[in-house]
Each structure stands twice: as structure tokens, then as C-alpha cells.
Design brief:
alpha+beta, Elongation Factor Tu (Ef-tu), domain 3, Alpha-Beta Plaits, 13 helices, globular
Length: about 600
């Protein structure tokens, strides 16, 4: 079988999309007039940020030793927040290219991604990219890859994705080293894994599949194991990267299946497709359910757009199954959704996609993590939303998730990075030097640090890049829950509790955060015709207060002289009138920027 299914795995900005472009160019998959840079990055958002967000699939045809080979490239994102996307891509492959930048070397996320590939028993081909760069330290990086990842130096390939150097040898190595998919057993019938899916407003939900056994033909009746539905294959074919229709998809092939299905919940990533005669067969091992680490509230600015937001989230979930959401209501913001994300970048990208692709205006509340609250009566509450926080007197103790962070940085920045980490709640792990016999100077170190997940939610990456001049890279993994001293900080505007501004914070920092937040809100909330108090409270105790002074008409303008008692009388009359109006109006409109002010409190 002359089929090779492979992924490219790499850290952000190591040249993954550029190498994919060269593969497409060398195999003439797309005509030169239609070829553009980063052809697999189809979203404007990906091009603007220079990162891959969504895994893309393309079929390449390559001739080697007078034989035609089909190479299915399943592209992967590089950021730590999209590791679930990477794991789904790898499940459809037999091999992976590990791409490492010759100017940057092994990064923290490179290590975690390669372990994912090893766990799935993939053949890994190590590749050093950007060897044409004047900043490239190719020999040093080869030695580093060999030291950290255990590859033999002779098996590490050198390429330049930019100018095409070594790409032809890499294509040959893919054919030689990566095994073809296992042969079909006709008695087992059809088994195809859904590794991705998209929504088309005309065609409905379209499943991207890898056929592990058997054959899918156009017009065939299919059985979806998870939703227990029978559907007809209206159209099937390959991805080049646009859809190219074909009569069948056989074992080892990667392609798309269109069923015309409109109920989005009937197609689930990780599900197995059978033929009707074998629907009682054992399904393929799908994917572990992803566990969100960050939760936030998403609300439409216009409350009438609630249903549109629900539909948009349903469609995005089809494309990104790591998104978790459920309806919730807020006294201040109305109807919305509590959403779970894999990280802050994931949250930011989802919000931008909802606003751009579905034309929605959204308010996002402060992000939070899941806390386990152990009650005195023996119950355990999993709290993701500060509004669900129980009364203090009923709480026995609280635990919060901790992470192990791995930071790789040049040794010159050890002092600044450790100082930055010391300002976070956590405990120091260890520092390991990456031994490099060829270059004793400019060594790099691996710093291990343990800290609460909530500490890395806001501005952690930016702070780390800032103290290391952009050289440090970081990866993290959840390890355990530990007992924490946490309290709920409430924000009261005009004596009314604004639930969407509440946050869970460390007890020792709560008063400081409260002061910072109320002073920020004082700048953001518009002045009214009456004085508006903004307060921060822990339980029933007010820990900070600011007053937004009232707008007032200059009633003294007509007094150009005379006794002071006349001026005082006019001011007292004005104050009495405002008091009456304040009782009538009572409510203050909090602007959208105020809900994001929580993120700006350091």
C-alpha cells in the first residue's frame, strides 16, 4: 500500500506552515498561480497572528523510484493551548516530522508534543529547519536535540523550508521510514475514525475521517456509533486542501464524508463510522475527553442575540470539541454561557472567532479555574463560577489545581526568570543545564517550577517573555489539587452586588486586589447626576471604596455677588433634589470595559 499519513509537530514559529508550503510546491498539488504563503492557514486570524489554530489536511501525490505515493499531511497547531487538536491529528497518522528551528533550538512545548507522538507509537523523523538563516547554529542544535530527545545525530535531517534546501530528501525519508497503514480485514467491515469536522451552511456537518478498515462508497448507508444514527454518504472524497469528490475511500485513506446532516450533535469527533452490517462491532479507541482549565462567562451585548450565540457555539464545537459550554444567567448581563477553555489563548481565539465569523458582540467576564470546596457537612462542590461560592461559615477547606511548569531559557536570564517566578504563589523545583559539548558558552537551562493554575491565567506568558527578552519558552501540565486559602471578592456598585465582577482570589492579596479594582472601575464607570459608591467586599466586610463624584449643574452661575448664605441655600436645595432622584433611579449602567478591568489588576 503506497500511502503515508503523517503530521508536522513543532513549537510556534519554527516554520511548520512554510514547510507545508514547500511540500505542496514540490508535489505540484496546487498550481503555482494559486499558491500563496501559508496556504494551510485558512483563517485571517491565523495569518494575522502567525500561528496555526486549526489542524488542516491535504493529500499530496509524489513519485519516488518510478512509483506513485499518496502522502496525507495532517497539519497541527503549535501552541500549548491547542494540544488537544494535536492529539486528534496524531491519531490519524503513522508518523510525524519533529521540526526544530536552527536559531531557537528545543523549546518547552517541543518536549511535551514529542511525548504525545511517542505515546501513540508514531515513527518520528527529527528535522532541523532554517539552516539558511545567518543566525542558525545548526551543529549546536543537532547536539542539543541528540542530548535532550535521544536521537542519533546521523538521523537528524537539515532543511530550509524557505528556500527548499533538503525538502526533496525529506520527502524521500517520509516514504522510506514512515510505515503504510495496516492492510484491511474484509471480515471486520468498515471502521473509520472521525478526527475532525466542519460545518457548511449549505451541506450541513461534514466529517473528516481516516479509514482504518474496509471501504466507504458514495451512496453507502453508514452507522455513527456514538449518536446511533444511520446516514447516507451523499458525497465522499479527498482534501487537496479543497474537497475533491471520489467514488470511494479505502483502508488507509484520509478524506471527507458528507451526509447532509443538520443536527450537529449527531457527529462527534472521536466517533467510529461502521457500515450497516457491522454496527455491533467494537468501535475504535476515540479520544480522551479534554478537560478545560479556564472558565469564563460569554454574554451577548445585545440580549436578543442569545439564540444566535447558542447556534454559533454549536457550530464552533463541531470544529473544536475541546470547547465546553453551558447556559447561565447574570443579574447584570442577562442570559449567556459559562464556557470552558484549554487556556487563555484558546479563550481569546474562540471569542475572536465568534465575533468575526458570526458577527456577534460579546462581553467576557474574568477567567477562573475549578475549585473544590469541601463543606462541613461532608459535601464537595466543584465551583467554576464565583456566583456559586458558598457562605464562608459552611466551608471546611478549599483545594485548587496546581501545575508543573517547564521553562527553557538561556542561562543569562536565570536571575530574572526566577525573580519573576518568586512573585507568584508557588514552590521552586529545580534547574537543569542542557549539556552541550560543542558550545560551553550561551548554555540553556530547564527550570521546573510548581504553582497554582490561577497564577498563569493572566499575563504570565507576557511577563515571562518580558523578563527573558523573548527567549524563554514554557509548557505546563496539571499535576494535583492542593489546599488553598481563598476568598470571594465581591464588587458593589451603588450598593448593588455586580455578580459578573466577582472573583476568587488568595486571601493575603484580596484587599490589595479590591483596592486596585475599585480604583480602575472609578475611571471606567461614567458619572451620574448623583454620587456613586464603588466598593470591594469580602463576606460582609468592605475592604476598599471609591466614590464616583456626581455631575452637577452650576447653580451658582447666576450669583455674581451678595451674601454667602444665598449660595449655600441654592447648593442645599440642589443636594436634596439629587437625593430624591437617586432613590428613583437607583441603578447604574456598568460599561463593557469594566468587566475586563479584572484582567488588568496585577
Amino acid at each position: 500500500m503506497r500511502i503515508r499519513n503523517f503530521s508536522i509537530i513543532a513549537h510556534i514559529d519554527h516554520g511548520k506552515s512554510t514547510l507545508a508550503d514547500r511540500f505542496i510546491e514540490f508535489t505540484n498539488t496546487i498550481s503555482s498561480r494559486n499558491l500563496k504563503d501559508q496556504v494551510l492557514d485558512t483563517m485571517d486570524l491565523e495569518r494575522e497572528r502567525g500561528i496555526t489554530i486549526k489542524a488542516q489536511t491535504i493529500q499530496l501525490n509524489y513519485k519516488y523510484e518510478n512509483k506513485e505515493y499518496i502522502l496525507n499531511l495532517i497539519d497541527t497547531p503549535g501552541h500549548v493551548d491547542f494540544t488537544y487538536e494535536v492529539s486528534r491529528s496524531l491519531a490519524a497518522c503513522e508518523g510525524a516530522l519533529l521540526l526544530i528551528d536552527a536559531t531557537q533550538g528545543v523549546q518547552a512545548q517541543t518536549i511535551s508534543t514529542i511525548y504525545q507522538a511517542i505515546d501513540q507509537d508514531l515513527v518520528i523523523i527529527p528535522v532541523i529547519n532554517k539552516i539558511d538563516s545567518p543566525l542558525a547554529e545548526t551543529d549546536k542544535i543537532i547536539s542539543e536535540v541528540s542530548e535532550i530527545l535521544g536521537f542519533d545525530e546521523s538521523e537528524i535531517l537539515k532543511v530550509s523550508a524557505k528556500d527548499g534546501t533538503g525538502v526533496d530528501k525529506l520527502l524521500e525519508k517520509i516514504i522510506e521510514k514512515i510505515p503504510s497503514p495496516k492492510d484491511s480485514n474484509e471480515n471486520d467491515g468498515l471502521k473509520a475514525l472521525i478526527f475532525d469536522s466542519i460545518y457548511d451552511s449549505f451541506k450541513g456537518a461534514i466529517a473528516y475521517v481516516k479509514v482504518f478498515n474496509g471501504k466507504i462508497t458514495k451512496g453507502q448507508k453508514l452507522y455513527f456509533h456514538n449518536s446511533e444514527t444511520e446516514l447516507e454518504a451523499i458525497d465522499i472524497g479527498y482534501l487537496k486542501p479543497h474537497q475533491v469528490s471520489s467514488k470511494s475511500l479505502t483502508t488507509g485513506y484520509v478524506g471527507y464524508v458528507e451526509t447532509g446532516i443538520k443536527n450537529l450533535k449527531d457527529i462527534k469527533v472521536g466517533d467510529t463510522i461502521f457500515d450497516i452490517d457491522h454496527k455491533e462491532s467494537k468501535p475504535l479507541i476515540g479520544y480522551k475527553e479534554s478537560s478545560p482549565t479556564v472558565y469564563t462567562g460569554l454574554y451577548p451585548v445585545d440580549s436578543d442575540k442569545y439564540q444566535e450565540l447558542r447556534d454559533a457555539l454549536d457550530k464552533l464545537y463541531l470544529n473544536d470539541p475541546s470547547l465546553v459550554y453551558e447556559p447561565e444567567t447574570s443579574a447584570a448581563l442577562g442570559f449567556g454561557f459559562r464556557c470552558g477553555f484549554l487556556g487563555m489563548l484558546h479563550m481569546e481565539i474562540i471569542q475572536e472567532r465568534l465575533e468575526r465569523e458570526y458577527d456577534l458582540e460579546l462581553i467576557t467576564t474574568a477567567p477562573s479555574v475549578t475549585h473544590s470546596v469541601y463543606m462541613k457537612n461532608g459535601e464537595v462542590n466543584k465551583i467554576q463560577n464565583p456566583s456559586e461560592w458558598p457562605e464562608t461559615q459552611h466551608i471546611d477547606y478549599i483545594t485548587e489545581p496546581w501545575v508543573k511548569t517547564t521553562i527553557i531559557t538561556p542561562e543569562n536570564y536565570i536571575g530574572k526568570v526566577t525573580e519573576f517566578l518568586s512573585n507568584k504563589r508557588g514552590e521552586f523545583g529545580q534547574i537543569d543545564y542542557i549539556q552541550n559539548s560543542k558550545n560551553v558558552s550561551n548554555q540553556r537551562v530547564i527550570i521546573t517550577h510548581f504553582l497554582p493554575l490561577s497564577e498563569i491565567l493572566i499575563d504570565f506568558f507576557d511577563g515571562l517573555k518580558s523578563c527573558s527578552s523573548g527567549y524563554a519558552s514554557m509548557d505546563y501540565e496539571l499535576i494535583e489539587e492542593r489546599i488553598a486559602s481563598l476568598v470571594k471578592l465581591d464588587i458593589l456598585v451603588n450598593h448593588e452586588n455586580v455578580d459578573s465582577l466577582s472573583l476568587i482570589t488568595d486571601k493575603t492579596r484580596a484587599a490589595y486586589k479590591g483596592r486596585g479594582l475599585v480604583s480602575k472601575l472609578k475611571e471606567l464607570i461614567p458619572r451620574q447626576m448623583f454620587q456613586v459608591p464603588v466598593q470591594a467586599a469580602i463576606g460582609g466586610k468592605i475592604v476598599a471604596r471609591e466614590n464616583i463624584s456626581a455631575l452637577r449643574k452650576n447653580v451658582l452661575a447666576k450669583c455674581y455677588g451678595g451674601d454667602v448664605t444665598r449660595k449655600r441655600k441654592l447648593l442645599e436645595q440642589q443636594a436634596k433634589g439629587k437625593k430624591r432622584r437617586m432613590k428613583m433611579i437607583g441603578s447604574v449602567e456598568v460599561p463593557q470595559e469594566a468587566f475586563m478591568a479584572v484582567l488588568k489588576i496585577d
